[in-house]
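9444_t:CDS:1
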Amino acid sequence: MSDTLALRGTLEGHSNWVTAIATTSENPDMILSASRDKTIIVWQLTRDETNYGVPRKALTGHNHFVQDVVISSDGQFALSASWDKTLRLWDLNTGTTTRRFVGHEKDVLSVSFSPDNRQIVSGSRDKTIKLWNTLGECKFNIQEDGHSEWVSCVRFSPNPSNPVIVSCGWDKLVKDSITMLWDLNEGKHLYSLDAGDIINALVFSPNRYWLCAATSSYIRIWDLETKVVVDDLTAAYENQRDNKKDQHQCISLAWSPDGTTLFAGYTDNKIRVWQVTRV
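Predicted structure tokens:
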């Protein structure tokens, strides 16, 4: 017996690329998705045969692409990053913006809550990382010894007693197919995995020793224990183009908190839902 993934359904509601997906253990029947249509959709998961979920609310206010969205640890608030140079804090109960964060000079590409939800970090195409409080005040600006190019991803480590921010950028513009795994205690490179195509997003399974990579051709899933490929997930697209450069692809990934469901956002504006099944 082994685990694999099967396509379970789709979520349709966006009119442009699905750039980010967020899930929360506080409400397993809700997910959020961000899009280039300038909105964030709050989905109610119904898990029906015909429709896996319905859009419950559209969070509007950004006037450019929404690039990232995350949910606070209590499941009450969301934080979004946009190419309109701002962040927004949203009350998920009311669907309204409670705070705008203004200070970046270019597109904001990534955002993250600290584990206690009291601090916020953002990364931007202006090459800076900013640390904010929840009142929208920028408390710290990281630029010295920082990135020389766009800051494409920022995240807090999950340990509140030792707050560490991790960031990555476009300094070396490596758009290759290699995933490198590192031992942070030893600071050494453990091994590399080849996805066979440009990687758009990576996510670890919360309860299996799996790593998932969204590439321009498929979603590749590795078992990190055996280092073998568990599955390559491919989707059927309507109106697919012949030119590989113009083909639809997966650009965002998120696991359900219980690790049974993988949500994948695509450039055909859909979220596809993959479910772990035993074969």
